[in-house]
């Protein structure tokens, strides 16, 4: 793969920065993104239009894995805003999972029995164009320590809850002091057994897995599960494998969830290579989600019939333990719905 070679020296310098610096230096200008990747002018108008709906955000460590001058690159497709984001067919809405109706406390979403989701950070390291939370009202769900008390009390009062899921945004975009405090509060709740973290940061900026994170994560009494979000094998470079190795050494079970995306991974060979590469990194495939019908993302849609056919054919290529489960999240259902 030819990557953005004129960026190599700058990328290397960027990767020596702390993860916080890499986060704050992420590209947030669609013109710069197009220029750095050698895209011709025809992409600019759409990039600015999409950016106006959902800000572009691409850190250098992720940019370095994108091919130069290739608008079809599967990683670029995930982050490049397009004019297609203005399309708004019936059924595509701003809150496809109806999360607003499952928030008994600020920053807390309780949809499924036995587990709750905590919005631990309002931001992400990368803005994925298909994100089902691209319209989420993070401003109303970014609790301060004092405001977390309602959510924590909700957990204390319900002994049927055994698992807390840190989500966002990307929960690992929060600083380690805040996360260590929150996890410290969670582990005081006797009926909580597991801490699950849904994150893309160890993939997008692998330097996020540093000693400060490993300290609080490795030290908690809670069983630890990290669900990464990787959609294509090209996202898994050596730095990602090294980050995963460190997480596993800290006692973290690593799983992956992908979204089936038109033009990114809607191909049997691509999905098979992804599963193989995940396993090389010590990560088990978990879910393959069909697209949530979020406004602005219809161009990523793969129809259900095609998704089922893909997964049926995928079984011919992989052992069972490398097969992700094809699912859809249906508002109001008690769990993810297999397709
Ligand atoms: S990292 Fe996750 S939450 Fe953030 S934009 Fe991407 S898909 Fe959405």
From TrEMBL:
Swiss-Prot/TrEMBL catalytic activity: L-lysine = D-beta-lysine
Organism: Vreelandella nanhaiensis
Domain Radical SAM core: 110-325
Cofactor(s) this protein requires: [4Fe-4S] cluster; pyridoxal 5'-phosphate
Record key words, sorted: 4Fe-4S, Iron, Iron-sulfur, Isomerase, Metal-binding, Pyridoxal phosphate, S-adenosyl-L-methionine
Sites where the protein binds [4Fe-4S] cluster: 124, 128, 131
Classification via InterPro entries: Aldolase_TIM, EpmB, Lys_aminomutase/Glu_NH3_mut, rSAM, rSAM_sf
Family: Belongs to the radical SAM superfamily. KamA family.
Official protein name in the record: L-lysine 2,3-aminomutase
Statement: the UniProt record of this protein carries the keyword Aminoacyl-tRNA synthetase: no
Modification N6-(pyridoxal phosphate)lysine, positions: 336
Lineage of source species: Bacteria, Pseudomonadati, Pseudomonadota, Gammaproteobacteria, Oceanospirillales
GO molecular-function terms, A-Z: 4 iron, 4 sulfur cluster binding; isomerase activity; metal ion binding
């Amino acid at each position: 793969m030819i990557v953005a070679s004129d960026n190599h020296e700058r990328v290397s310098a960027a990767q020596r920065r702390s993860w916080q610096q890499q986060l704050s230096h992420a590209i947030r200008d669609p013109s710069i993104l197009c220029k750095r990747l050698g895209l011709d002018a025809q992409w600019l108008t759409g990039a600015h239009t999409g950016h106006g709906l959902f800000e572009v955000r691409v850190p250098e460590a992720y940019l370095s894995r994108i091919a130069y001058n290739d608008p079809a690159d599967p990683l670029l497709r995930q982050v490049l805003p397009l004019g297609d984001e203005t399309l708004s067919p019936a059924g595509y809405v701003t809150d496809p999972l109806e999360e607003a109706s499952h928030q008994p406390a600020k920053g807390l979403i309780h949809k499924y029995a036995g587990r709750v989701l905590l919005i631990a950070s309002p931001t992400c390291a990368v803005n994925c164009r298909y994100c089902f939370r691209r319209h989420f009202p993070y401003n109303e769900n970014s609790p301060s320590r004092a405001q977390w008390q309602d959510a924590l009390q909700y957990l204390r009062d319900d002994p049927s809850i055994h698992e807390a899921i840190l989500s966002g945004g990307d929960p690992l975009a929060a600083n380690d002091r805040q996360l260590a405090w929150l996890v410290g509060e969670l582990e005081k709740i006797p009926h909580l057994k597991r801490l699950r973290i849904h994150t893309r940061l160890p993939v997008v900026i692998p330097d996020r897995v540093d000693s400060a994170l490993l300290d609080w994560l490795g030290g908690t009494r809670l069983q630890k599960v990290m669900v990464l979000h990787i959609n294509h094998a090209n996202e898994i470079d050596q730095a990602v494998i090294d980050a995963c190795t460190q997480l596993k050494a800290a006692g973290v079970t690593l799983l992956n969830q992908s979204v089936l995306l038109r033009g990114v991974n809607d191909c049997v060979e691509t999905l098979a290579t992804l599963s193989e590469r995940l396993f090389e990194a010590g990560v088990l495939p978990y879910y393959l989600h069909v697209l949530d019908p979020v406004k602005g993302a219809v161009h990523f849609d793969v129809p259900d019939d095609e998704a089922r056919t893909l997964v049926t054919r995928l079984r011919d290529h992989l052992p069972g333990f490398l097969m992700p489960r094809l699912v859809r999240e249906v508002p109001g259902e008690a769990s993810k719905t297999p397709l």
